[in-house]
Amino acid sequence: MANNTILVVEDEEDIALLVSRVLEKEGYTVRIAHNLSEAQEFLEKQRPILIILDLMLPDGDGLELCKHLKFRENEQEIAIIILTAKGEEIDRILGFEVGADDYIIKPFSPRELALRVRAILRRFKETEAPQSEIYRVGDLLLDVARHQAFVKGEPIHLTRTEFALLLTLFKARGKVLTREILLDRVWGYSFEGYARTVDTHIRRLRKKLGPCASFIETVWGLGYRFKAQP
Q1: CATH architecture assignment, domain 5-128
Q2: Would you place residue 1 in the very low, low, confident or very high pLDDT band (cuts 50, 70, 90)?
Q3: Please, where in the chain does CATH 1.10.10.10 lie?
Q4: CA 43 from chain center: how many Å?
Q5: % helix / strand / coil in the chain, to the nearest 5?
Q6: Per residue in 16-65, pLDDT tens?
Q7: Are 106 and 56 in contact (CB under 8 A)?
């Protein structure tokens, strides 16, 4: 049987139960951890397909768990959605910097949560199928099968979302993609007010691309474009 377990790391019992009910209606098996210690104990025994992670937990910061999982090579493919009351832009930036795949602010819409979970897991499933394409432009190489990017022959660490964003821009090179289009193609949703998610990922992507960062152009008032020619 395919793994369909989602781990909810949330210390507020009412929120944990609400999230659990929402996800169980979607057909997932849900396990709840009320702190980091319980989450780590669960993860030592079982690998979920996704973690819904609060940041402010009784025994520490959820960001540390996210960072720990996303930067361990064998755990990199667990999807993580941060669900928190910390809604400042800097909080979102920090969440994405440590590898979160999405960021939802409390109070939240149960319908939106369900949609975002479906979108992330659908994206992960789509990218599991082996694809042999290798693309090269200038000093940048994209190996689709390995979900790996190389700059001047050196591998750069990209989350699955960052790689999907880069590949989407590359395949449309020369064309302007609006934030709304990128949200739809990469994240699988287009909720109003989440366009800044794209901006945050573009900033991180450029930083990681280093000398190839200029391949991604900002088209003011419209969106982003991958240069047709390096």
Answers
A1: 3-Layer(aba) Sandwich (3.40)
A2: very low
A3: 134-226
A4: 19
A5: 45, 25, 30
A6: 999 999 999 999 999 999 999 999 999 999 999 999 999 999 999 999 99
A7: no
Max Cα separation, the chain? 53
The class (CATH top level) of 134-226 is: mainly alpha
C-alpha 100, offset from chain centre = 5
Distance from C-alpha of 98 to C-alpha of 51, rounded to nearest angstrom: 14
pLDDT per position as a tens digit, 108-126 = 999 989 998 998 888 777 6
Dihedral sign computed on CA atoms, order 66, 68, 70, 74: negative
Reading the block at residue 54, the tokens are 């609060």
Torsion angle (degrees, nearest 10) of CA 33, 36, 37, 42: 50
Query: What is the three-state SS of 170-226?
Result: HHCCCCEEEHHHHHHHHHCCCCCCCHHHHHHHHHHHHHHHHHHHHHEEEECCCEEEE
**Strands of the chain, DSSP E:** 5-9, 29-33, 50-53, 56-57, 60-61, 79-84, 102-105, 134-137, 140-143, 148-151, 154-156, 176-178, 216-219, 223-226
> Could you tell me where in the chain the CATH 3.40.50.2300 domains are found?
5-128
- Cα–Cα distance, 78 to 100 (Å, whole number): 10
